[in-house]
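Protein folding task:
====================
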Amino acid sequence: TVTIGPGKKYRFVLTDFGKELDSVTVRLDTLKPVTPVAEDVGAKIVAFAAARVNQKGVGDGECTRLIEQALAEAGARRSKSVLWSKENGLKPGDIMLFKNAVFESRTGAKWNLGRPDHQAIVEKASGLKVTLLHQNVDGDPAMEKSRVRRLEQDLAWIKSGGFIFYRPVPK
């Protein structure tokens, strides 16, 4: 454990079996707190979509256009790996992809997300309960009917079809 004090200089040395490869000297007062990049990207994606709730859909109104534009505005891109595990959990800004997903509530209400495909942005998540931001849930023609909407969804209610998530990364 190293105790760091303000105004002091610290030298960090990279070695390989005792041989110095590189070093850097840092003064504490020049260091700035760093926010994790993934959280910055997720926050920007959510901010873009949330600012458009109840407004006309983005681009041609297709669900994908909201995702593409939010990623572009956040300086992000799709990651190459899909994630879904309890260990890393869902975070704001994650993208959800539905494939012929049919949900049924405890009261028997049924609805589809993705016929055949649909995409949405995770605004909030707590376990299997998510709040999504998406567009083009009104059917064709998307350009005329689409608007950005917020949906609270319990993923445990899925009856058929499926879904996956991925976490966008900085470009």
